[in-house]
UniProtKB/TrEMBL annotation:
Name listed for the protein in its UniProt record: Diaminopimelate decarboxylase
Residues bearing the modification N6-(pyridoxal phosphate)lysine: K48
UniProt signal peptide: none
CDD domains given in the database record: PLPDE_III_DapDC
Length: 390
């Protein structure tokens, strides 16, 4: 991601900033669309992972759909050229205003998360004399074996409709004449790297499909959600996820009916490796027990380490060439911290780095997903700018 030319260009840019390697983004999208096209699978991009305009434009140019979780995301998807028949709208708390906006935009489908929501969408669609396509988001009670803060498919989570409520769903669908039942939707969590988890999900999807068919509701769309993880430890050697193995699981274990569509909602796996947060060392504090690198970026720019104990690889770009040319070891341990007035404002403790100095450029890798979009203005901080490779 960083050759000497790139690092030299960084010298004159105000830090902190997000650096997007558009080549990596393109390669990732190519790998994903090639692998999904093999089985005729449809991919929607989970826009919440990153709605940077240039990122959206490139993703859209691959013919990928958009998975939105707010009215503003639906609006942005349409504005960025995503085809309305490839826009889906999920979310446990859609407001009436957001539902109306999506109805007016004639999106493909609402992924509905409660029985009550079915009636609300039905009423709002009726008022517009429209029929809304709906998929039922089912909480499958499948453990994603990921960090508990980003698990969504267990009974204890707020998402989706529990299996024991399905008879109520069937009753509601029969009553709601302004709804068209399209299919079933699942999403069990994020940063999933164990393919066995997806096999269990397939089993549950097959059971649910049988249930709907047995109750007189043919399933036209199976939406398996997203969640495919990326390698936060080796961003260079694993620049994108193993899309082939991922899609193969669904091809092998899902009971796909003739003419049925299979949908995926990938967020992280499409964008995570394409960006890094670039920051400068403001101060080096050598304490009795600890050495601290105080950066000009903090939890306001990248919250994941503080919120989910997430690991991000950290590199000193300014010392990189010295380390490589002189075969130096990275033998100092630093706690890499931000400037925010919170003790949790620490990217990682005991990071092995070469001796580092004020002004050194530091890259925090794999920051393309759930990073820029989760930035805040806490401490009245400016928003970090975005810089692109091309
Ligand atoms: N579909 C639904 C219904 C979702 O809730 C999500 C993510 C996705 C798809 C996309 O999941 P992905 O492929 O990106 O794993 N902020 C957390 C992740 C939250 C994920 C929320 N839902 C993080 O930084 O790890």
């Amino acid at each position: 991601m960083f050759n000497n030319d790139t690092i030299n260009k960084f010298q004159s840019i105000e830090t902190p900033f997000y650096y997007y390697d558009m080549g990596i983004l393109r390669q990732t999208l190519e790998a994903c669309t090639n692998a999904s096209a093999r089985y005729g699978f449809h991919v929607h991009y989970a826009m919440k992972a990153n709605f940077n305009p240039k990122v959206l434009d490139m993703i859209q140019s691959f013919g990928i759909g958009a998975d939105c979780v707010s009215g503003n995301e639906v609006k942005a998807a349409i504005e960025h050229g995503f085809a309305k028949e490839k826009v889906v709208f999920a979310g446990v708390g859609k407001s009436d205003k957001e539902i109306n906006l999506a109805l007016d935009a004639d999106i493909f489908c609402f992924n509905v998360e409660s029985v009550q929501e079915l009636f609300i969408i039905n009423d709002l669609a009726a008022a517009k004399n429209k029929k809304a396509n709906v998929a039922i988001r089912i909480n499958p009670n499948v453990d994603a074996h990921t960090h508990h803060f980003i698990t969504t498919g267990l009974d204890e989570n707020k998402f989706g409709i529990n299996i024991w409520q399905l008879p109520d769903v069937a009753d509601a669908l029969r009553k709601c004449t302004n709804l068209q039942f399209l299919g079933i939707h699942f999403h069990i969590g994020s940063q999933i790297t164990d393919m066995e988890v997806y096999k269990s999900l397939c089993t549950r999807i097959n059971e649910m499909q049988d249930w709907f068919e047995d109750h007189g509701f043919p399933v036209k769309v199976l939406n398996t959600g997203g969640g495919l993880g990326v390698d936060y430890y080796n961003p260079d050697t694993n620049a994108f996820s193993d899309f082939e193995s991922y899609f193969n699981v669904f091809k092998d274990f899902l009971n796909v009916r003739p003419g049925q569509e299979v949908h995926f909602e990938l967020g992280r796996a499409l964008v995570a490796q394409s960006a890094s947060l670039i920051s400068r060392v403001l101060y080096v504090k050598n304490g009795l027990k600890k050495n601290f690198l105080v950066l000009d970026a903090g939890m306001t720019e990248l919250l994941r380490p503080m919120l989910y104990q997430a690991y991000h690889s950290i590199e000193n770009l300014s010392q990189k060439s010295k380390v490589e040319s002189q075969n130096l070891t990275q033998d100092i341990k630093y706690d890499v911290v931000g400037p925010i007035c919170e003790s949790t404002d620490c990217f990682r403790k005991d990071v092995d780095l070469p001796e580092s100095f004020r002004g050194d450029l530091i890259a925090i890798r794999t920051a393309g997903a759930y990073a820029e979009v989760m930035a805040s203005g806490y401490n009245l901080r400016n928003r970090a700018q975005s810089v692109y490779s091309e």
